[in-house]
Amino acid sequence: MSSHQQPYYVPKSSKLPFAMAVTMLTLIIGASTTLKPELGPFGENSYLVLLTGFLMMWTTMFFWFSQVIKENNEGLNNLMLNNSYYYGMAWFIFSEVMFFFAFFFALAYIRNFAVPWLGGEGEKGISNILWPGFEAHWPLMVTPDQAAFPGPEEEMSFGTAYGHGGLAGVLGWIPLYNTICLLSSSVTVHIAHLGLKNGNRLQFNLFLAITLILGYSFVVLQAIEYSEAYTQMGLTLKSGAYGTTFFMLTGFHGFHVCLGAIILTIMLIRGLRGHFSHDDQFGFEAGSWYWHFVDVVWICLVAFVYVM
Length: 308
What we know:
CATH superfamily of the largest domain: Cytochrome c oxidase, subunit III, four-helix bundle
Shape: globular
Order of helices and strands: HHHHHHHH
Distance between the termini: 61 Å
Number of helices: 8
Helix content: 55-70%
Strand content: under 5%
Number of strands: 0
């Protein structure tokens, strides 16, 4: 029976979901042991497990994407299945919204409740009990374990002078550069979408390529910012609540930018090969939705982490 006669296409059994589960387990083990080498049996070579996990993820995604693209090109995706793709992507983005909401809420709780309580405010104030001489202000530049792990020298914000070299003032505006990159990329991906809708293949490929350049530039700039924070400013994962919340929020967002860039890279390759049409472009639409979501999260992150 052909796919047009079936109400729903049921794909063949696949081992790819199991492979992705093993991949994520490898990534988690690699990431945790790289941050804490003493936790695993690999010692200082724990980063090799992390790199293996990333290689497994790219490989699994390649075969999974190839299978889905092949099914679509063979016309196996009927209207009902295509509608399920839209709902599935919408729910996925909603779950990502809740994911980041949890971390933003954790930051808000620390800043608005935990820190004032430690400073003696309100009925739950416990000043000079857990932390003698504590002063309630955010960000926390001094921590109880300051003797073991030096705290940050300066907070991360627009115009922060990273380091002491000649480029310190230029590098200090990395959050602004990243904001320009992501907001501009949101415009260029929309222009690419318009080109696809209007049948202008050159416009689609060109502006999608510009989007990727801006997206990967964001990742490079964030890597520079992390390097400066660790080596010049003393801001690390060990520098108290400020360090952990900063790297937790910006790190997870950076990972999502990488994921979105990979998705759009695949869409660009498909576009160069002549895929997509006016009526069949969900793969790109899903990637563009995700990219706009990443941009919105960055705006919130800049407001709550770098500005306020």
